[in-house]
Amino acid sequence: MPKRDDLKKIMIIGAGPIVIGQACEFDYSGSQACKALKEEGYEVVLVNSNPATIMTDPELSDRTYIEPLTSDILEKIIEKERPCAILPTLGGQTALNLVSELAESGILESYDVELIGANLEAIEKAEDRLKFKEALQKIGVAVPRSAIASSVKSAILIAEEIGYPVIIRPAYTLGGAGGGIAYSLEELKNIVELGINYSRINQVLIEESVLGWKEYELEVMRDSADNVVIICSIENMDPMGVHTGDSITVAPVQTLSDREYQSLRDASLKIIREIGVDTGGSNIQFAVNPTDGRFVAIEMNPRVSRSSALASKATGFPIAKIAAKLAVGLTLPEIPNDITRETPASFEPTIDYVVVKIPKFAFEKFPGSDEILTTQMKSVGEVMAIGRTFEEALQKAVRSLENNTYGLFVDKFEKFSLEEIETYLSVPNSERLFCIASAVRKGMEVSQITKITGIDLWFIHKINNIVEMEKKISAYTMHNLPAQLLEDAKTMGFSDIRIGQLTGSGEKDIRKLRQELEIIPSYKMVDTCAAEFDAKTPYMYSTYEECDDDEPSRNKSKIAIIGSGPNRIGQGIEFDYCCVHACYALRELGIETVMINCNPETVSTDYDTSDRLYFEPLTLEDILNVLERERVAGVIIQFGGQTPLNLAKGLEDNGIPIIGTSLNSIDITEDREKFSLITGKLNIPTPSHGMASSVERAVQVAGIVISVLLIAD
Amino acid sequence: MKRAMLVLEDGTTIYGRGFGAVGETYGELVFNTSMTGYVESLTDPSYTGQILMSTYPLVGNYGVCNEDYESDSIKASGFVVKELCKTPSNWRSQMDLDTFMEQNGVPGIEGVDTRELTKRIREHGTLKCRIAVYGNEEPDIDSLIQRTIAQPGISECEVVDRVSTRTYKRVYDGQGPEIVVIDCGIKNSIIEQLKARNAGVLLVPFNSTSGEILNAGPDAVLISNGPGDPSTLKHTIATARELVGRVPLFGICLGHQIISLALGAKTYKLKFGHRGANHPVIDCETGRVFITSQNHGFAVDKDSLEGTGLEITMLNPNDWTVEGIRHRELNIHSIQFHPEAGPGPHDTHNLFDNMMTIINRSVSR
């Protein structure tokens, strides 16, 4: 079907400010949508309140409104702009909730504005817990037993009927906000009261607990001709009970046979058709009973989500871009696959690597906050890593987190007793992965760990493999470490730092040893098709195998830009914005760009932002590997926030030319003592201050500093 | 530990770890891009004479369950993977993949850069291949390469003969129409689909005569999937030709190629074939796209359909090869892909319903 010519002007609603549960993935999806609709010749009007986004760049849309995202403001913009349609499915829950309000209040009708992507009925069917349940029962897809409550009183009656524990899910909320798991009457009362307040329609669902079941997600796309494809399947390592945004996840699914996977696929196709999402992407979640394979559908997002961003980066299939094109009437077979160029988008990506996502938490910024993971999202960002083995992808993801973890090792757990470990493992939390490794080290049986954590045996065995390899390595020093063992360790994703720790040497020594032994990574492509077709887009990841997929260009003037890694408090989307603009600016000058980053939510990790994209951890080892291969003329580190700045010295020591702000200048601004010398020299007044590296000295300094007491890192 | 070696006819030698049976095996090296379904693929008779390679790197994760067998045993000659899972986890698993391969006497090799090999096949076409799994005594490479070069290609092997039923075999007494299946190596999933629609199913050997088949009183004849080069099956092609117009005729995969050849069209060898669970197929009438399971190394030549009475019903939008045909006047329908899936998506299960509708209509006439 050709694209619609009755639509001239289309309005896109962004997701607003970054909050926990809604981060830069909607900048990624929104900017793809703007670009895609402009490319198809539509006039695009964008509304968003977050200026630190690529999507609000003036050139991305015909008109950009940086305004509060409320229905009365939107009405004014609609009145002024008179768009033919609104595309609400790419701006997260914020956009979806807004258009629901606009539709219910009759504003859309009075200005004759059509909803494209998902209509109001589909949004309601997917978001309203009761309607969703009824729709699924109609098509014979099992759901957990549940009932709707609008008061604490009715919630109590329902919970007694179902039996504790129960899950509380407020309708129309983001990241599971206001929801939770109640094991007792008291907990139920607390959560329900909160949840009813959070819900836009003051409604919560009280649901049978499928805690401990395996959790899966499928990313589904549908076009106006009713063609449906699955873009990616995702398996959550943490079982049901932990919000998927807080769960370590892996793509594709690992522990389902084809028969079981196909039954989830069949259900997904039925669900997207019954809910009636006309075009675009949706995310459908399932729980599978690990003892008998029985499955239930948990929920559906009738829009692009954080999982869609992950699925796009994991497969190379640009979900948001395609969703925008489908919304204006194009069909999947009419849209080419960007990566192969010769085959159409009407296929299901297949991958020949493993993708692991680990969420990034910031509990240290909120002392006293509850670190237990539940159905309510608490992570502030995430990292993704790609490898040819699960162990490799997992360990690359671990060192991408920038938590000072270069392997599955956190010292505090080593000091735990087995009993303490057991207690710690029994509740999901942000560091459980590391505690599992300690449990294995202390000799806890893998089956026992599965029993305590509910994490599938398959994952525990993989962690066991890593610990076994650690043991083998630590029997050697770097002088007698067998080459084969070193190579085997690298195929399992061990970092040079970790191997150094295990052999009593340093990162530098291991790097040198590796290079002498010619154990260097090869780079493979993310190509949507497992090499069945020739890929044209250099979207690369490292692994330790025989062959490279492509040769780096011989261009001597290319520049690498190091991204900002995972979102965290104090380092968010604004740095990605800067990196993306650095790419654009260099491209305008005709300079080839190489991007290195590990955050799947970002625009910088879109394969068309830079000329060459490396999805890699931002550690010295991984960056040097890329740079030694690409032989760039210079590296820009000043746009990626603190992450690349911390690497500056290591890069310079290895002879990498840093362009832009020099290491010396960075050092002066970061080192408070050096900085104060400069301000003193320039006669610029600053609050009085002093440096201390011990408590005693701090007391002394504090005595001297009278006016202001500033304790800084 | 078992060691293993893989050699190609071009002299490439790859070392890896062995699994499954100790010994030497040979065949045509082909890759499959499906991320699940190794049990179904290994036991699919269409892989007879071929060494299967999985592009997905982690194989064996969910173990082996006999409900997933597509025939009574492993039919592929060997298996090439990046990493074999020794500790599978799934509630249905009865044994690990290594044990399954060993019990079936089939050698496998792991630790291979399967992506690199896949690219090699993509660029050079399918290659003759040999796997040797051994203990301490490493086989002589030169003679291994010599044997690989000398081994017959897939078109020189009588692979269908190895997997077709020897006798008439009634597999289901359905109340519905009687379907005689010319068994070129049928998959269990096809039989299951027919059973589910209550058809009577009688398997006959691939070299049955048309007289024998018609004597069984079929309401329709289905020519099954199977391995190898369709053009070598002169007898089956002749039988199909004799059945044209006398009984509704259906074909899946190899059966589709045989029907095309019987009506005068030609087939040719694809450079590296279609093997996977993500291949799109476009219905030429409606423009709808279905995701299908595919496993074929040969295809029907589009241009050769001219004048045969056959017309194209479905195409593969990746390379525009023929995926489905029907006769303009007669009750003849066939498809290149696998609507029964096993492994793969169930998008085209409804084609079995269509088949039953056509048969019932013809019976009632």
The overall number of domains of chain B is 2
Structural category of chain A is alpha/beta
The overall average pLDDT of chain B, rounded, is 97
Beta content of chain A comes to 15-25%
Given the structure, what is the number of helices of chain A? 26
Q: Give the quaternary arrangement of the chains.
A: heterodimer
Please state the structural category of chain B. alpha/beta
Rg of chain B to the nearest angstrom? 20 Å
User: What series of H and E elements makes up the topology of chain B?
Assistant: EEEHEEEEHEHEHHEEHEHEHEHEEEEEH
In one word, what is the shape of chain A? globular
Protein name (chain B): Carbamoyl phosphate synthase small chain
Pathway (chain B): Amino-acid biosynthesis; L-arginine biosynthesis; carbamoyl phosphate from bicarbonate: step 1/1; Pyrimidine metabolism; UMP biosynthesis via de novo pathway; (S)-dihydroorotate from bicarbonate: step 1/3
EC number (chain B): 6.3.5.5
Region (CPSase) (chain B): 1-177
Q: Would you mind describing this structure in some detail?
A:
Chain B: Belongs to the CarA family. Chain B: The active site is at residues 253, 338, 340. Chain B: Residues 2-132 form the Carbamoyl-phosphate synthase small subunit N-terminal domain. Chain B: It catalyses: L-glutamine + H2O = L-glutamate + NH4(+); hydrogencarbonate + L-glutamine + 2 ATP + H2O = carbamoyl phosphate + L-glutamate + 2 ADP + phosphate + 2 H(+). The complex is a heterodimer of chains A (713) and B (365). Helices cover 39% and strands 16% of the residues of chain A. Chain A has 713 residues and is α/β, with parallel strands linked by helices. In chain A, helix 5 packs across helix 6 (129-138) and helix 24 packs across helix 25 (672-681). The mean pLDDT of chain A is 92. In chain B, 24% of the residues lie in helices and 33% in strands. Chain B has ten helices and 19 strands. In chain B, the strands form three sheets. In chain B, strands 10-12-11-13-14-19-18-17-15-16 form a ten-stranded mixed beta sheet, sandwiched between helices. In chain B, strands 1-2-8-6-4-3-9 form a seven-stranded mixed beta barrel. Chain B is globular, with a radius of gyration of 20 Å.
